[in-house]
Specification:
258 residues; mainly alpha; 7 helices; 0% strand
Length: 258
């Protein structure tokens, strides 16, 4: 009589134990997924905040700044859903909301001169990597439906111009370096390539117009220099020929009779 009861109790304990393990495994799985989700959002926030630090070097538009701040805000909201009692996340969200409101109310358009010329090829590459990351963010936010197609196209165009300006500034340094080393052919080649690119832009801003004018001025200067060098070489050859002729005259002149 006792055996069925004991077996039943053992079976019940096994069921409870198995059920408890399943629940625990589910909790661990959910906690791990929660951590992964939070870490993913933290990575998004860290990337955007790092890009925002470059606003002092590059002219970010109001729309772009709002896109980036809202990306941080959306990441914080996702984190808050996963960890609703986190005070640091709530504080970060509150600060982000204040920054967004401040941008909407007190935004000052950036000056074109904010784009600081890269001092080396490495620095130019760093700036270009920044623009690539920004473009990736724009595509991501557009795909999610966070920004309109018109805004996406407008900001894409702005970033493309920014990339062009970075390349222009870096190319100017290379042209100057070529001039200093008397590599006028290389300098002229780079100038022609840049002018071809600029000629293909229909709505150039003041910055690009100034650079186009400067490139043409350098091109004229190089052309003038090459013409001068050519004239000097001709004159040198004439002088050399005259010197040879004088030597021949001396050699074949009438011999003095002693």
């Amino acid at each position: 009589m006792l055996s069925p009861i004991i077996f039943a109790l053992i079976a019940l304990l096994l069921i409870v134990f198995i059920g408890y393990n399943i629940i625990q495994q589910y909790k661990v799985k959910m906690e791990n997924e929660q951590k992964i989700a939070i870490n993913k959002q933290r990575a998004i926030i860290a990337e955007v905040e790092e890009l925002l630090l470059n606003a002092t070097k590059m002219p970010f538009s109001k729309s772009l700044l709002l896109i980036m701040q809202n990306r941080i805000r959306n990441a914080l909201i996702t984190m808050l859903k996963a960890s609703p009692h986190s005070l640091p996340i709530r504080e970060h969200l509150s600060n982000t909301d204040q920054q967004i409101e401040n941008l909407k109310q007190n935004y000052t358009p950036p000056d074109e001169s904010v784009l600081r010329a890269p001092q080396s090829n490495n620095e130019a590459l760093v700036l270009l990597k920044i623009t690539k990351k920004i473009r990736a963010i724009l595509r991501s936010e557009h795909t999610k439906g966070k920004i309109s197609t018109d805004m996406f196209i407008s900001e894409e165009k702005t970033i493309e111009l920014m990339q062009l300006k970075i390349n222009l500034e870096n190319s100017f340094k290379r042209i100057q370096h070529s001039q200093l080393n008397n590599q006028y052919g290389s300098a002229n080649q780079m100038i022609n390539k840049l002018l071809t690119v600029l000629n293909g832009i229909p709505d150039k801003d003041a910055y690009l117009l100034a650079k186009e004018k400067e490139l043409n001025a350098i091109k004229d200067e190089i052309k003038k220099h090459l013409n001068q060098v050519s004239d000097e070489e001709v004159e040198a050859m004439k002088a050399k020929d005259k010197e040879k002729q004088n030597d021949l005259d001396v050699l074949f002149q009438d011999k003095k009779k002693w």
